[in-house]
Amino acid sequence: MARADILVINPNSNPAVTAGLDAALGTLRLADGPSIRCATLSEGPFGIECQKDVEQVTLPLRRMVEQDNGADAFVIACFSDPGLHVCREATQRPVFGINECGVLSALARGDRFGIIAVAASSIARHQRYLRQMGLTERFAGERPLGLSVAETTSDERAFARMEAVGRELVEKDGADVIVMGCAGMARHRRPLEATLGVPVIDPTQAAVAMAIGAVQAQVF
């Protein structure tokens, strides 16, 4: 039987974000498990930071899903879950959004979750999505780093800001589990969890873990 394949799509055009995703998913690459490929949407903006950016990548993502005949599952690696429903409409194979998966994983690890956002402008968009999912009662709060997507990936200030914002979410807002609100934050998950003393969810890892479960279940 051919080995199952999962395609993880970075909808922004920053290759450093894709490289960070690829590294963070290393622990999920098991010898007898599905292959995990990471790809960059070249048509995307350098960072998805506003609703215009979200809308811009929706149809290119659908085309990418439609044209890939090798993947058994897809993961859209942007916390806004751009194009999630239109991509699901385009294929019979499962499509996972990292926001949805990250939050669902957080619900399994704690009572109230908090989100670290990249920028303040992202928060209204994220909270609208949480209302659509009916999860506001278990939502402790969301606080911004005040950085760009690119800076969360490469700037040395990123971890210090994430630690400070994470502490506010835990100590002031009452979060007992933290969701990192950007795919570019992936490399900070483990040290942030050690520092804060609460579970920290990397949403891309959460989505890929769900994708692995979905494709492995088809084996039996």
Protein architecture, described:
The chain has helices spanning about 15-25, 50-65, 85-90, 100-105, 120-135, 150-155, 155-170, 190-195, 205-215, and strands at about 5-10, 35-40, 75, 95, 115, 140-145, 175-180, 200. The chain folds into 2 domains: about 5-95 and about 205-215, Rossmann fold; about 100-200, 3-Layer(aba) Sandwich (Rossmann fold). Helix 8 (about 190-195) links the parallel strand 7 and strand 8 (about 200). Helix 4 (about 100-105) packs across helix 9. The termini are close together. It has a 4-stranded parallel sheet. It is an alpha/beta fold and about 220 residues long. The model has no long low-confidence stretch (mean pLDDT about 95). The protein has 9 helices and 8 strands.
Summarize the structure.
The protein contains nine helices and eight strands. It is of the alpha/beta class and 220 residues long.
Characteristic terms for this protein:
220 residues; alpha/beta; Rossmann fold; 4-stranded parallel sheet; 46% helix; globular
What structural class do you assign from the helix and strand content?
alpha/beta
Total number of helices? 9
Order of helices and strands: EHEHEHEHEHEHHEHEH
Low-confidence stretches: none
How helix-rich are the residues, as a percent range?
40-55%
| Mean pLDDT across every amino acid position | 93
User: How large is the share of residues in beta strands?
Assistant: 15-25%
Domain count = 2
> Given the C-alpha coordinates, what overall shape results?
globular
The largest β sheet comes out as:
4 strands, parallel
- How far from one another are the termini? 12 Å
How does CATH name the architecture of the largest domain? Answer: 3-Layer(aba) Sandwich
- What is the CATH domain class of the largest domain? Alpha Beta
CATH topology of the largest domain: Rossmann fold
Q: State the strand order across the main sheet.
A: 2-1-3-4
Estimated radius of gyration: 16 Å
